[in-house]
Design a protein that fits this description.
The complex is a heterodimer. Helices cover 23% and strands 23% of the residues of chain A. By secondary structure, chain A is an alpha/beta fold. In chain A, strand 8 and strand 9 form a beta hairpin. Chain B is of the alpha/beta class. Among the domains of chain B are: 3-138 and 175-224, Glutaconate Coenzyme A-transferase (3-Layer(aba) Sandwich), CATH 3.40.1080.10; 301-355, no CATH class. In chain B, the strands form 3 sheets. In chain B, strands 1, 2, 4, 6, 10, 11, 12, 13 and 14 form a 9-stranded mixed beta sheet that branches. In chain B, helix 6 (124-136) packs across helix 8 and helix 10 packs across helix 11. Chain B is globular. The N and C termini of chain B lie far apart (46 Å). The chains are: A alpha/beta, B alpha/beta. Chains A and B meet through helix 3, strand 9, helix 4 and helix 5 of A and strand 5, helix 5, helix 6, helix 7 and strand 9 of B.
C-alpha cells in the first residue's frame, strides 16, 4: 500500500479530523460520508452519522458505497429509519452538531451556489438545485464545506445563494432570521479555512505541507485573509489511509 | 406557486365532500391513471430512485396527459420522462437528476434553460413541510430554513413574525396536490397501506392530496393488516385506487426487495449523451408505449436481471427482515420469484396474495 495520499484522500482524512467524538454529523454522500465514517473508525467511535434520507447511525458496507442519500446502501445496518422531513427537523431542533456538505461554487462568506448560472427564470446553466444543502446550512450548529480547491469554484460572489454561509458578512444571518449556526470551516485540497469572527470573511487556518499562500491565491478568485502563524496540517497517517481505502476499494469517490 | 396550492379551506371542503370508504378500491393501472386530468398538480411518492411509483408513471404517460405540475423533493427519471413527451409544464422540487455519478440532467437543463418547463425550487425541508402543513390541514408552517438565501429572493415564500418572541420565521405554504401517486410494499384491497424501511414522505403526501392512487408490491388479506395494524401508515379511507404492481418501482429500488439498477442508469445516461431527448423517447417507446401491460414491460428486463437486483437488496437487508417478516418478496407471475439470499429461511407463502 502506498502511503502517499491522493488529493481526495487528503480531503477525506483532514475533514474526518474536524469531527469530535460524542457528537452528531449530518453528512452528504461522497467524500463527506467517507470522512464521517473514517472519523468513526478512528478517533470518534461515539459519533452518530445522520443522512437526509431518514437514515440514522448507518455503517458503510465496504464496496457498496452509497450513491444517493436515499437508498439501501446508505441505510446499511442503521439504528433508525425515519421520515425525511423528520430528519431535517432534528437539525432544526438543534440536535445535529455538524453539517458536512460539498460545494459547487463558494464565495468569501461561505455562501454556496448549486442552483443557476445566469438569470433564475431563463438560466444560462441550470444546476441540480439545493437538495438538502440549504437546510443543512441553515439549521445545523455548524457547517463544514468539503471541496476541491479550484479558482472556478472559489468566486468573489456566487451567482445565486442556494445555501447560506455568512450571507453579506457580519450580522447577515441574524438580519435574515437565521438565529443559529453558520459556516465554521472549509476543508479543501490546499488546506483548512475558517472565517474571521468580525468580518466573517474566509481566512487561512492551515495549509497542507508544501502548499504556499501563492498556491492559494492562484486557485482562489478572491482575497483570502491570512492569519498570523498559519498551521501545517499533519499528513494522512498510514492507519487513516488504510481504513479509508478499505471503505472505498473501487475508488469510486477517492479517485 | 398557485394560490390554490395552499387554499386550506377549499382543500378541506374537497376532502369533506369526498366519499371516504372502507370498501373496495382494487382497480387497474389504466383506471387509476385515468383519474389524473390535464393540468393537475401531481405529487410523486418515494424519493429520487427509491420507491418511485413507476408502474403508475408509465400508466400516466400512456394516458398522454398535458399541462401537469409534477412535485417531488428529489426528482429523477420520472421528471425527464414527463418533460421528454411534453406532459409537464412545471416541476416543484429541491433537486433534479439521477445521482452524482450521472451528472446534471441534460433533459432538465434543455427544458428549463429553453423556457419550456418552469423549475420551482424549494429547499428539501421546506417542500417536506409544504406536504406536512397540508397533511395537518393548515395554510402554512413556521420554520427556520430557507431564510436569507436567494431561494426566498426569487420565490413566492413569505416570512412571518412570531407573535410570542418577535422572531422572523419562514412561513412555508401548504401544498395540497390534486393527485398523489404512491408505491408501497403492501396494501389490502381497501387501501390500507404498509411500508417497510424508510417511509420517505408518503404518509404526508397521502394526507395532503385530494385523490390518492397506490400501487403495492403485494396485495395482502384484510386479516394480515389487522394482525399488524401498527404497520399501516396510510388508512384505507384516504385511498381512491389500489393496484397490485409487483416490482412496481423498477428500475428504481424498493427497500429490502430489489436494489436500483445502476447499470440501467449508465445505459440510459449514455443514450441521452449520444442522442439527447431522443435517448429518452426511444426508452419510452420500448418500455412504456410498446408493452401492453406493466408485466410485459417488466419482461423486457428479463428474470435474471430482476433476480440479480433482488439478490443485491438481500445483501444489504436480510430477506427475513422485509415485508414485515410476513410475506415473501413479490412474484411477478410471468417471471417467477426473485431468488432469496442464501441461507435465509423462506417465510410461509400463505400471506403473499399472489396465487
Amino acid at each position: 500500500m502506498t502511503t502517499i495520499a491522493s488529493p481526495t484522500e487528503w480531503l477525506a482524512v483532514v475533514a474526518s479530523r474536524q469531527l469530535r467524538d460524542h457528537t452528531t454529523v449530518f453528512a452528504g454522500v461522497g467524500v463527506p460520508l467517507l470522512a464521517a465514517a473514517l472519523a468513526q473508525a478512528t478517533h470518534a467511535p461515539n459519533l452518530t452519522i445522520v443522512v437526509e434520507g431518514g437514515i440514522v447511525g448507518p455503517r458503510i458496507k465496504p464496496g457498496r458505497l452509497p450513491i444517493s442519500t436515499n437508498e439501501m446502501r446508505t441505510a446499511y445496518r442503521a439504528t433508525m429509519l425515519t421520515g425525511i422531513t423528520d430528519t431535517f427537523l432534528l437539525a432544526q431542533r438543534g440536535a445535529l452538531d455538524v453539517g458536512f456538505i460539498g460545494g459547487a461554487q463558494i464565495d468569501p462568506y461561505g455562501n454556496v451556489n448549486t442552483t443557476v448560472i445566469g438569470d433564475y427564470a431563463r438560466p444560462k446553466v441550470r444546476l441540480p438545485g439545493t437538495g438538502g444543502a440549504n437546510d443543512i446550512a441553515s439549521l445545523c450548529r455548524q457547517v463544514i464545506i468539503v471541496t476541491a480547491h479550484e479558482r472556478r469554484r472559489f468566486v468573489p460572489r456566487v451567482a445565486f445563494v442556494t445555501s447560506p454561509g455568512w450571507l453579506d458578512g457580519a450580522g447577515g444571518r441574524e438580519r435574515a432570521g437565521l438565529r443559529f449556526g453558520g459556516v465554521s470551516g472549509v476543508v479543501t485540497t490546499l488546506g483548512v479555512f475558517g472565517f474571521d469572527p468580525t468580518t466573517r470573511r474566509m481566512r487561512v487556518d492551515a495549509l497542507h505541507p508544501g502548499v504556499t499562500m501563492d498556491d492559494v491565491r492562484a486557485n482562489t478568485g478572491f482575497e483570502v485573509l491570512s492569519a498570523d502563524g498559519i498551521d501545517t496540517t499533519a499528513p494522512p497517517a498510514a492507519d487513516e489511509l488504510e481504513l479509508l481505502r478499505a471503505l472505498d476499494p473501487e475508488r469510486r469517490f477517492l479517485g | 406557486m398557485k394560490p390554490s396550492e395552499y387554499d386550506f379551506v377549499a382543500a378541506r371542503r374537497r376532502l369533506e365532500a369526498k366519499e371516504k370508504s372502507a370498501g373496495e378500491k382494487l382497480t387497474s393501472l389504466e383506471d387509476a391513471a385515468a383519474r389524473v386530468t390535464n393540468g393537475d398538480v401531481v405529487a410523486v411518492g418515494g424519493i429520487l430512485f427509491s420507491r418511485t411509483p413507476m408502474a403508475l408513471v408509465h400508466a400516466i404517460l400512456r394516458e398522454r396527459r398535458t399541462g401537469l405540475t409534477l412535485v417531488r423533493n428529489l426528482m429523477c427519471q420520472e421528471g425527464e420522462f414527463m418533460m421528454a413527451v411534453g406532459a409537464v409544464e412545471r416541476v416543484v422540487t429541491a433537486w433534479f437528476g439521477i445521482g452524482l455519478p450521472w451528472g446534471v440532467s441534460k433533459i432538465m437543463r434543455e427544458h428549463v434553460e429553453g423556457g419550456k418547463v418552469v423549475y420551482e425550487e424549494w429547499s428539501h425541508l421546506a417542500l417536506g413541510l409544504r406536504f406536512r402543513a397540508a397533511a395537518m390541514g393548515v395554510p402554512f408552517l413556521p420554520a427556520l430554513t430557507m431564510l436569507g438565501s436567494d431561494l426566498v429572493a426569487i420565490g413566492p415564500m413569505k416570512t412571518v413574525i412570531d407573535p410570542y418572541t418577535g422572531t422572523t420565521l419562514a412561513a412555508i405554504p401548504a401544498l395540497y396536490p390534486d393527485v398523489a401517486i404512491l408505491h408501497v410494499h403492501r396494501a389490502d384491497r381497501f387501501g390500507n397501506c404498509q411500508i417497510d424501511g424508510y417511509p420517505h414522505m408518503d404518509a404526508d403526501i397521502a394526507r395532503a392530496a385530494s385523490t390518492v392512487l397506490v400501487t403495492a408490491e403485494a396485495l395482502i388479506p384484510d386479516e394480515e393488516v389487522r394482525r399488524h395494524p401498527d404497520r399501516t401508515v396510510i388508512p384505507g379511507f384516504l385511498v381512491d385506487a389500489v393496484v397490485p404492481a409487483p416490482w412496481g418501482a423498477f428500475p428504481h429500488e424498493c427497500y429490502g426487495l430489489y436494489e436500483a439498477d445502476f447499470e440501467h442508469f449508465d445505459e440510459y445516461a449514455a443514450a441521452i449523451d449520444a442522442r439527447g431527448t431522443a435517448g429518452v423517447t426511444e426508452f419510452l417507446d420500448r418500455h412504456v408505449y410498446g408493452p401492453a401491460s406493466w408485466l410485459e414491460s417488466l419482461e423486457l428486463w428479463g428474470a435474471e436481471r430482476l433476480a440479480r437486483q433482488a439478490r443485491r437488496a438481500h445483501e444489504l437487508v436480510p430477506a427475513t427482515d422485509i415485508m414485515g417478516g410476513l410475506s415473501t418478496p413479490p412474484k411477478p407471475p410471468a417471471l417467477g420469484a426473485p431468488r432469496q439470499s442464501r441461507g435465509a429461511p423462506r417465510p410461509p407463502d400463505a400471506f403473499t396474495g399472489y396465487a
